[in-house]
Amino acid sequence: MKENSLEEKRDKIVRGLEATYAKLVEFKKSKKSPLIVSKDGKVIQINPEAAEPTTTYNRG
To answer: How far apart are the C-alpha atoms of 14 and 31, rounded to whole Å?
Structure first.
């Protein structure tokens, strides 16, 4: 039972992260502002028009 409860909570958190990412991309597009992310230890800017509108997180 405890394991199932943790999985449900993790899934809710991951769904929330995915929804937040989608809202962030839309916001950045509307403001014509770049996304600032870290990739391979470097800080980079991504054009929001080139960013994927959704993302999936590893649930494992």
So the answer is: 26
Which residue has 């449900």 as its token pair?
Answer: 8
Q: Where are the beta strands (DSSP E) in 1-60?
A: 35-39, 42-46
Q: Helix, strand, coil proportions of the chain in percent (round to 5)?
A: 50, 15, 35
> Does residue 60 carry a pLDDT above 70?
no
CA–CA gap between residue 12 and residue 30 (Å, rounded)? 27
End-to-end CA distance of the chain: 18
Q: Is 57 helix (H, G, I), strand (E, B) or coil?
A: coil
Helix (H, G, I), strand (E, B) or coil at 4: helix
Tell me the whole-structure pTM to 2 decimals.
Answer: 0.76
